[in-house]
Specification:
By secondary structure, this protein is of the alpha/beta class. The chain folds into two domains: 155 residues, P-loop containing nucleotide triphosphate hydrolases (Rossmann fold), CATH 3.40.50; 97 residues, no CATH class. It is built from twelve helices and twelve strands. The strands form two sheets. An eight-stranded mixed beta sheet has the order 6-7-8-3-9-10-12-11, with helices on both faces. The chain has a four-stranded antiparallel beta sheet with strand order 2-1-4-5. β9 and β10 form a beta hairpin. α4 packs across α5, α4 packs parallel to α6 and α5 packs across α6. The longest helix has 22 residues. The two termini are 30 Å apart. The chain binds adenosine-5'-triphosphate (ATP) and magnesium ion (MG).
């Protein structure tokens, strides 16, 4: 049984217009996606800006209203309860937010930032609380003295580690990590990812790891979903996606991973160009006339690899 299962999730935001601010339409930010996350595993959610990734994360945390779909946690339908504060579900599922500069309150000390979820859910004496905060700081490689400092006194990588410490304070089962390293230098990215992996092993945590970059998530994720235009264009295991990318959108994303080997740069540049051309040429085969994404279908009978494609063209496209 999966730890988290999401079925046909939809989130629509109202568009208001006119002098009375009436609702004149909706942005379909997430338009029917289904996925599951197993205990101790990482699911990567990949896609370009505006494709709906953060909205999926917020929907799982109950921070935006659902237009449709259902959410199961530990096999229980908790769709109607996700927004409720202080429920055991809200304790078990935490989020590391995309924008670390604004998600850590600048006026609060690190101690208060990390202790906030503890104060919401547990009754600790100040001494017990301080001990827990010190332990959490140690897990992400920071020191006791850091507890009394303010966010601006830290580098981006350290701030993100504070975000990790806060997210694990309640020993959650699942963390939605929204672009946790995108704002960081490459060298620091690896360091934060390593802390996230260590924490995962220690607590048998599951992650939903959101990123726009297939290169970053390669070593983090057992399973991946590729998102475009509010829907999934392809889902599969790490081997399915990197070894046999089948939707033109995924193929183009993989080609855009920068290559560190300088000798291969020219070769990669021409491969990238060829895939861009292929994307333009084959677009109409893979997308509906209005740009909509087709339903996912099993790729060559695989039980793990699914690709969005029209029912009549399947075999020739993959
Ligand atoms: N609160 C909101 N009200 C109205 N529209 C919203 C709201 N939040 C998101 N949207 C819209 O929903 C769509 C998806 O946004 P979302 O933030 O989920 O994208 P994203 O994939 O996380 O992008 P990025 O990579 O830039 O973070 C966008 O068109 C966005 O403008
Ligand atoms: Mg986002």
């Amino acid at each position: 049984m999966a730890l988290l299962e999401v079925r046909d999730l939809k989130v629509y935001f109202p568009i208001r217009g006119g002098i009375f601010g009436r609702v004149v339409g909706h942005v379909r930010a997430v338009d029917g996606v289904s996925f599951a996350v197993n205990e101790g595993e990482t699911l990567g959610l990949i896609g370009e800006s505006g494709s709906g990734k953060s909205t999926i994360g917020k929907a799982i945390l109950g921070l935006v209203p659902l237009a449709g779909g259902s959410i199961y946690f530990n096999g229980k339908d908790i769709t109607r309860y996700i927004g409720k504060n202080r429920s055991s579900y809200r304790k078990g599922v935490q989020m590391i937010f995309q924008d670390v500069h604004s998600s850590l309150n600048a006026k609060k000390r690190v101690l208060d930032i990390i202790a906030e979820p503890l104060r919401n859910f547990e009754k600790n004496t100040p001494k017990e609380e301080r001990k827990k905060v010190d332990e959490l700081l140690a897990i992400v490689g920071m020191s006791n003295e850091d507890a009394l400092k303010y966010p601006h006194e830290f580098s981006g990588g350290q701030r993100q580690r504070i975000g990790v410490a806060r997210a694990i304070a309640l020993k959650p089962r699942l963390i939605v990590a929204d672009e946790p390293v995108s704002a960081l230098d490459l060298s620091i990215q690896a360091q934060v990812l390593n802390y996230m992996k260590d924490v995962q092993e220690e607590f048998n945590l599951s992650y939903i790891f959101i990123s726009h970059d297939l290169g970053v998530v390669r070593h983090m994720c057992e399973n991946l979903t590729i998102m475009h235009n509010s829907r999934f264009v392809e889902t599969g295991t790490r081997e399915d996606i990197y070894g046999n990318p089948s939707h033109i959108y995924t193929r183009r994303l993989i080609a855009s991973i920068p290559d560190v080997d300088p000798h291969k740069r020219e070769e990669n540049e021409s491969r990238r160009q060829a895939l861009n051309d292929e994307y333009e040429r084959l677009y109409a085969n893979y997308y509906k006339p209005d740009g909509g994404v087709y339903d996912l279908r099993s790729a060559t009978g695989s039980g793990t690899h699914f690709v969005a494609m029209p029912t009549d063209k399947g075999e020739e496209l993959i």
